[in-house]
Design a protein that fits this description.
Strand order of the largest sheet of chain A: 6-7-8-3-9-10
CATH superfamily of chain A: P-loop containing nucleotide triphosphate hydrolases
Low-confidence stretches of chain B: none
Oligomer: heterodimer
Distance between the termini of chain A: 32 Å
Number of helices of chain A: 9
Order of helices and strands of chain A: EEEHEEHEHHHEHEHEEHH
Number of strands of chain B: 2
CATH topology of chain A: Rossmann fold
Structural class of chain B: mainly alpha
Number of domains of chain A: 1
Mean pLDDT of chain B: 91
Largest sheet of chain B: 2 strands, antiparallel
Distance between the termini of chain B: 10 Å
Number of domains of chain B: 1
Low-confidence stretches of chain A: none
Strand content of chain A: 15-25%
Radius of gyration of chain A: 18 Å
Largest interface: A-B, 32 and 21 residues
Shape of chain A: globular
Strand order of the largest sheet of chain B: 1-2
Mean pLDDT of chain A: 92
Number of strands of chain A: 10
Helix content of chain A: 25-40%
Strand content of chain B: under 5%
């Protein structure tokens, strides 16, 4: 049984069809990549899975249960967490407080939450910024804060939205390393990425979207050689 | 070095302030006690608003609804049932909370935020003033609180000092509550909702629940303040209870003093309330002159320190 099943999801915004009958499955333990040009519907798909939007039609089944139409806090409590592409830290709270929010939604023990939060902050390498206000962090640091915050909710499925977006190329290997560590922790990853080298190096499978429809679903090699994917997005064959 | 000065200041200044506040009424005459009662009342009401507007980011313009309901409930129950205002106060609080929950649920269900939420609450305030003028006991003429001549049971005292200590006690209560909330899960959730509620929801925070909690605490405590003031004034009418001025005055304190901070309302009221009184005394006592001054102060605060004066003072202290 797949951890996540998306069946025929359609999402419209007025006349714009952002997602068109998208169907996919994600098995536990996989790292699945999601690629496509801007406007393809990638973040919309994440938003729909996490409950930020509700689809106009279709079903989303997580761990055997229908989660279509649930609120995002309910879906989060069931085990799906996501990061935001436009990094959205709680700017008036410190890094520590930011990460504690996710833990506090499951326990009210402040001391315990603080200790756990520090572990996640350490995991993403932000320990020296622990008492800084989130508004003062650099882009790369904010990306890592997004990850720590989402991880703090102890998800089984983590939706990472362009974790390396806008990050200095020198910082990318560290983020890739983090994603690998997450897999070792047993978390299933669904990753939106524009850096093809990152996607092909860590993903077991890649799904490609174009104008709201799924156009490819297979191994990195298969997808990067797919004619439609090349025409709509890649532009050239990636060996 | 600067951190320790700030921390020591954070401990000693309130302690000294509290000591002065405790002995203050024995050294001055009734006029100053009255002024102090008003100042502290506005600290109290400002702190109640601060929990909802400052910490949770829900700028509510309906504080006068809770305040007025508190005052009317205790007064009407006293008149009709001879019920002690101490209990009337609690009942007023409950009624205000129910109204707050209704206003809140309507707004939050439709995901109203920021200005739209403010407008809805403003509309309710207007509605209540009209309702009070036309349908409440006393109507436009208002109600006199039946005199019971200095009985604790009836929340009436001949000596203003007792009123002073009551409001002082209330303000300490609300500051303690705020302090406690800020350090525990509730405060973290409030601030997360304020900073980015959609993200907070994605982290497992049930928005409706926590927004309604903030609304309830704020409305209940504000109503208590309403009963206090009417029992001090011994008169209530739709103007006193529900007019918009009161809400604006309430919001200005934490706004100027330091929004979303513990001491913001204290600083704000200590600055603004005596200032209003000085205006009244020296500028001919025309109603509302002080508002011009408030406006100037507000503009200056927005330009130079939008988070309020407290963060500005902290920055100045940290530099020196």
């Amino acid at each position: 049984m797949a951890l996540l099943e998306v069946k025929g999801i359609t999402k419209r915004f007025g006349g714009l069809v952002s997602l068109n009958e998208v169907t996919l499955k994600i098995k536990e333990g996989e790292i699945v990549g999601l690629i496509g040009p801007n406007g393809a519907g990638k973040t919309t798909l994440f938003n729909t899975i996490s409950g930020y939007y509700w689809p106009d039609s279709g079903k989303i089944i997580y761990n055997g249960k229908h989660i279509t139409g649930l609120r995002s806090d309910q879906i989060n409590k069931m085990g799906i967490a996501r990061t935001f592409q436009s990094m959205r830290p709680f700017v008036n709270m410190t890094v520590l407080e930011n990460v504690m929010v996710g833990i506090l939604s499951r326990t009210s023990d402040m001391t315990f939450s603080r200790q756990k939060a520090l572990k996640y902050i350490e995991f993403v390498g932000l320990l020296e910024k622990v008492d800084s206000f989130a508004g003062q962090l650099s882009t790369g640091q904010r990306k890592r804060l997004e990850m720590a915050r989402a991880m703090a909710t102890q998800p089984r499925l983590l939706l990472l939205d362009e974790v390396t977006g806008g990050v200095d190329p020198r910082g990318v290997p560290a983020l890739v390393g983090l994603m690998k560590k997450l897999r070792e922790e047993g978390i299933t990853l669904f990753v939106i990425e524009h850096r093809i080298k990152v996607i092909t190096s860590i993903c077991d499978r890649i799904i490609a979207l174009h104008l709201g429809s799924k156009i490819a679903d297979g191994t990195p090699k298969e997808v990067t050689n797919n004619r439609q994917v090349i025409d709509s997005y890649l532009g050239e064959v990636y060996a | 070095m600067d951190q320790t000065i700030l921390r020591k200041g954070a401990f000693w200044i309130p302690l000294v302030g509290l000591s002065i506040a405790l002995i203050f009424p024995w050294f001055v005459d009734d006029y100053f006690i009255h002024l102090a009662i008003l100042t502290i009342l506005y600290i109290y009401l400002g702190a109640c608003w601060n929990l909802l507007g400052g910490y949770t980011g829900l700028a509510c313009f309906g504080q006068s609804v809770f305040y007025g309901i508190g005052g009317y409930t205790s007064t009407v129950l006293l008149i009709k049932l001879d019920l002690t205002p101490w209990i009337g106060m609690l009942l007023g609080g409950i009624l205000a909370t129910l109204i707050g929950l209704m206003m809140g649920y309507l707004s939050f269900h439709y995901k109203l935020k920021g200005w739209y939420f403010g407008l809805v609450t403003l509309a309710f305030a207007e509605i209540f003033q009209i309702a009070a003028t036309n349908f409440f006991p006393g109507g436009a003429a208002g109600l006199y609180v039946p005199l019971r001549h200095n009985q604790i049971l009836y929340y009436q005292f001949a000596d203003k000092r007792i009123n002073y200590y009551i409001i002082l006690g209330l303000v300490l209560l609300v500051l303690l509550i705020t302090h406690f909330i800020a350090r525990h899960r509730l405060g973290y959730f409030f601030k997360a909702v304020r900073d980015d509620e959609e993200v907070a929801e994605s982290l497992g925070v049930y928005l409706m629940k926590y927004k309604l909690i903030a609304m309830s605490i704020s409305s209940f405590l504000t109503a208590i303040g309403g009963t206090f003031y009417i029992q001090y004034l011994l008169f209530i009418d739709p103007e006193i209870a529900f007019r918009m001025d009161v809400t604006i005055e309430i919001i200005l304190r934490p706004l100027v003093g330091g929004i979303g901070t513990l001491w913001g309302p204290v600083l704000g009221s200590l600055l603004l309330t005596p200032l209003a009184e000085i205006c009244n005394v020296f500028l001919g006592g025309r109603m509302g002159i002080h508002l011009i001054l408030y406006g100037i102060i507000l503009i200056l605060v927005i330009i130079y320190s939008p988070q309020g004066l407290l963060p500005l003072l902290k920055r100045l202290f940290a530099k020196s």
